[in-house]
Amino acid sequence: MAMMLLQLRLPGGKCGLVSAHVSMHTALRLSSLFLLLSVTFFGRSAAASCQQLHTCSSPTTSVSHPAAVSPSAMTDSRSDACPEKIGDVSQLKCAFKLFDADFFPDSKVQEIAEGAVDYNIPIIRANRKSVASVDGGLQNPSPLVFNAKWGNASEQVNIKSRRFDYPSPSGIQRPKNDEDIAFMSVVGLGELIRTGQITSEELTRIFLQRLKRYGDVLQSVVSYTEELAFMQAKEADRLLAEGTYLGPLHGIPYGLKDIIAVPHYRTTWGSKTFKDQVLDIEAWVYKRLKSAGAVLVAKLATGSLAYDDIWFGGRTRNPWNIEEFSTGSSAGPAACTSA
Fold first, then answer.
1. Which GO terms describe its molecular function (predicted)?
2. Does residue 2 or residue 186 have the better pLDDT?
3. In whole angstroms, what is the distance from residue 218 CA to residue 231 CA?
4. Whole-prediction pTM value?
């Protein structure tokens, strides 16, 4: 879920703010709609886009290449005259077709456009300016910029700085069948490791074998981090042998969805464009899990650009019914956890 702050034009010309909890899917669509309104709707570029998409022209209409748009036309579309052009509702409704939203009456389209000019564009411009100033604009982040280095990269994780309470099970016994191990809780697995009934290295091998058995069927794994996993598992076993226990995640295998950067491994965001991208950055969540002794076994699928169920390697499936799909930015982790 996401919370959106909407500025509404009320009767009498007054404006009001309304906060609403909406699905991320809806939030993305609304954000894209306002972004498209504020950036591409106005001026000649909007008309050119409509022609290219054949949404406002007949099949026989000739379409010029985007490069044919003159610099003067592009400048004109960004000029102060742009607000005057919002009176052309037909162009706006053309762009609304991209969101299957052309059912709005002309008066509502006009109202949305005026709101974008009066409120959304100034906010977007202010956010864009702040991104270039204080800490990457984190005090008022812009939807137009992503920076994987946000945060203090040099900050060291203090594993003793904060602790949380968790159940302290007793009498946990290792199942006779390794298949049953996959369905134990994290707390249960942690107790097996703490009491020496299983090593982290052995547990890591069990989960990697299971991932490889079902990963291709579910299309849920982007990269196996096998070499890193066994290195971390051996370190977890060594620490435990020396009497150091880091907590309930000590030696526990886990997967990260592939929007989280881990050095030397791909961070693809599920996108074909970035399928070979390697970020030499340790994401904060990865640092925290590593400091807690957890063992990374795989980078898991996320829908393209963390959206939907389709990514460059396929379409993530529901393990309860592989004719159905697991969707959203955590499509891969959801399928793997459920399986």
1. glutaminyl-tRNA synthase (glutamine-hydrolyzing) activity
2. 186
3. 27
4. 0.57
